[in-house]
Specification:
- The protein has 232 residues and is an alpha/beta fold.
- Helix content is 45%, strand content 13%.
- It is built from eight helices and five strands; from the N terminus they run H-H-E-H-E-H-E-H-H-E-E-H-H.
- It has a three-stranded parallel β-sheet, sandwiched between helices.
- Helix 2 runs parallel beside helix 3.
- The termini are far apart.
- Bound molecules: 3-methylbut-3-enyl trihydrogen diphosphate (IPE) and magnesium ion.
- Magnesium ion binds next to loops.
- One of its GO terms (biological process) is regulation of cell shape.
- Keywords: Cell shape, Cell wall biogenesis/degradation, Magnesium, Metal-binding, Peptidoglycan synthesis, Transferase.
Length: 232
């Protein structure tokens, strides 16, 4: 979700106003994905590097985050959406950590869609964290180093139990991954749009889905193997 600041500055508004508008775009994305039958939606809300922003902006983002948890959970419950936060929770206040755990608990039995919110998240953090967990298991004698396969690694990442992402969407014109789900994006289709996040709407998300529908996914195979010509 990129482009909040530029959206606001182009209107001579403070950057924080862009973040406020961005919350509406996030709500739209959640509703639209649930309606379209998406099983898992992950929103990159705040990266481990975003802590470097000016104090006041970080404060606003945290306030919006806390406010959104409180406001949106009833709709998530009503729509059958399960919430999961991924990221380094130890960077948040005890109060915020408790709110996050409470929101997850209240939506735990929901099965229509899983909404994953990445906060204080970094792909490198995720991989390092999984490596540390695996090392700890080896130290305890529960696991041999030779048993560490990509599948075992998967189970120690913050996205354990979730399918690999099919489609990645980045708004705001930059064409980079910026430390999002580095391991998990290995075979994900990438869609970049110049639309700034607060302007991101159902039409643009629909275009991302159309782009995805037009991709042929080979996962290392050759074309004849995946289209089923009969001689594969
Ligand atoms: C993304 O918008 C939102 C967050 C990182 C929370 P930006 O704040 O990065 O907006 P730009 O890139 O400055 O326009
Ligand atoms: Mg940005």
């Amino acid at each position: 979700m990129d482009g909040n600041g530029r959206w606001a500055r182009s209107r001579l508004l403070p950057r924080t106003e862009g973040h406020r508008q961005g919350v509406n775009a996030a709500r739209m994305a959640v509703r639209y994905c649930a309606q379209q039958g998406v099983r898992v939606l992950t929103l990159f809300a705040f990266s481990s590097e975003n802590w470097r922003r000016p104090r006041q902006e970080v404060g606003t983002l945290m306030d919006l985050f806390v406010g959104s948890i409180g406001r949106e959970v009833p709709e998530l419950v009503e729509k059958g959406i399960r919430l999961r936060f991924i990221g380094d929770r130890t960077t948040f206040s005890a109060k915020l950590q408790a709110r996050m755990a409470d929101a997850e608990e209240r939506t735990r039995s929901n099965e229509r869609m899983e909404l994953v919110v990445a906060v204080s998240y970094g792909g490198r953090w995720d991989i390092a964290n999984a490596a540390a967990a695996l090392a700890e298991r080896v130290r305890r004698g529960e696991l041999e180093p030779e048993q560490i396969t990509p599948e075992v690694m998967d189970r120690h990442l913050s996205t354990a139990g979730l399918p690999e992402p099919d489609l990645f969407v980045r708004t705001g014109g930059e064409q980079r991954v910026s430390n999002f789900l580095l391991w998990q994006l290995a075979y994900t289709e990438l869609f970049f749009t110049d639309v700034l996040w607060p302007d991101f709407d159902e039409d643009e998300l629909g275009r991302a889905f159309e782009y995805f529908a037009g991709r042929q996914r080979r996962f290392g195979h050759i074309q004849e193997q995946v289209v089923g010509t009969g001689d594969a």
